[in-house]
Amino acid sequence: MDIDLGGPDHPPPPRLGRGTRQTGVRLYNERLVLSLVRHHRALPKADIARLTGLSPPTVSAIVGELEADGLLVREAPQRGKVGQPSVPVSLNPDGVYSIGVKIGRRRSDIVLMDFVGGVRAELHRTYLYPEPDSLVAFIDKAWRTLGAKVPAGRRNRITGLGIAAPYELWNWEEEVGSPPGAMQSWKDFDLTEAVGRNCDLPVYSCNDATAACAAELLFGDAGRYADMLYIFVAWFIGGGIVLDRHLYPGRTGYAGSIGQVLVPSRDADGNPISRQLLHVASMYRLERTIKASGGDPSPIWESPDDWTSIDPYLDEWIERAAGGIAHAVIDAMSVIDFEAAVIDGALPASVRKRIVERTVATLARLETKGLAPHAVVEGSIGNRARAIGAASLPILARFMRDRELLFRSPGETRLDGANSAERLSAS
Question: For position 419, what pLDDT does the model report?
């Protein structure tokens, strides 16, 4: 089924920077306000003016137009202060929708997400290993199916499709369990271009672990940390880095590749060796343990929120994974003074909790002199993090502009002391 994204019955989607008034400034200021409101969940116009340095009349005009576009909604008035009650505004969940695609080595997920990170609908597909052509066909059908779930009058608000996929999908065939050479077709395959050929929406892409980190930063509880090491336990463990409340992808997008950190391990004879964390704390190791015992490992990817049937196999894997993660955390903290290490994964919340507890216990036994105190906490999004992060890409590209000043509390004064945003030229 096709999705009508325009036409007489469906007006064009809301656009930033309307009219003839200094379009560049307007675009910047509207993104500024939307980003600020997103971070604080809800803000009165007076606080928006104080935090951005925009004049109250300018803020009032911007908020009014964003309300008219359906991007902002008014909350209940806040009473009890001197003068008139203040009326906070927040993002309208139905103001924008996007599609997020997560490509994994055993499973792919596609979600329809609203403007505040809520998943409205989702589809999944599992396999023994990913194949490009069949996945593109699945994505093409799935995004249309999910898009059709948006009421017809609001389908013009589907702003784009984001893809989160591992880098170098063709590598680690042995660990994936695919036939030799079966994954090599990914080496020269441009997934973003292939999906975009038959997609009426703009298509964006990024690394899967980076996308999960972005989801936690944007919508998760750990967004309170200005600097964090993010660790995502999946088929292959990965991660991301947040510095000064901004996602840091690095020069080539590989920043936060925690799976490549060398950690203590043992060989088949029990001799101490160093191995990449990827080979100690990834889910493929759990699959091998279950298979070696004659069990069925399919719940790992078939039911990532319920591992009851494989619980007897978890203790040993959790202990080894947590031990490796603890050493990797120390290595990372010795390079960058993170506030926290945030651990999430494509696994049940109860298993995530056990991994964090064992990581903390292991860290307590290791030498950490010379390192600043830091927190080790659970992530809050879980299995959907990569798909939600993917769905965030079109929204970030079109509607948000996060900068340092956006992450101060409403009571704090501005950093610049002047209306710098208002003074920006349209060029």
Answer: 36
Separation CA 163–CA 206 (nearest Å): 6
| Alpha-carbon 260 to chain mean position | 21
Q: What is the CA radius of gyration of the chain?
A: 23
Contact 233, 283 (CB under 8 A): yes
Three-state DSSP class for residue 258: helix
User: What is the SS3 string spanning 305-369?
Assistant: CCCHHHHHHHHHHHHHHHHHHHHHHHHHHHHCCCCEEEEEECCCHHHHHHHHHHHHHHHHHCCCC
The pLDDT value recorded for residue 34 is 95
**Half-sphere exposure for 34 (CA within 13 Å, toward CB):** 29
Amino acid at 23: T
Spatial separation of the C-alpha atoms in residues 340 and 106, rounded to whole Å: 30
- Cβ-based neighbour number of residue 14 at 10 Å: 19
In the prediction, which pLDDT does 23 show? 56
Determine the number of helices (DSSP H) and then strands (DSSP E) in the chain: 13, 14
Low-confidence ranges of the chain (pLDDT < 70): 1-26, 80-83, 402-427
Angle at 302 between CA 347 and CA 210, to 5 degrees: 45
pTM more than 0.85: yes
Q: In degrees, to the nearest 5, what angle opens at C-alpha 354 toward C-alphas 270 and 318? A: 20
Alpha-carbon distance 407 to 323, whole Å?
34
Hey, what domains does the chain have and what are their CATH numbers?
A: 23-94+401-423 (1.10.10.10), 97-212+386-398 (3.30.420.40), 221-380 (3.30.420.40)
> Taking the CB of residue 193, how many other CB atoms lie within 10 A of it?
10
d(CA 203, CA 195): 8
* Percent of the chain that is helix, strand, coil (3-state, to 5): 45, 20, 40
Helix (H, G, I), strand (E, B) or coil at 186: helix
| CB-based burial label for 386 (10 Å; 0-12, 13-18, 19+) | buried
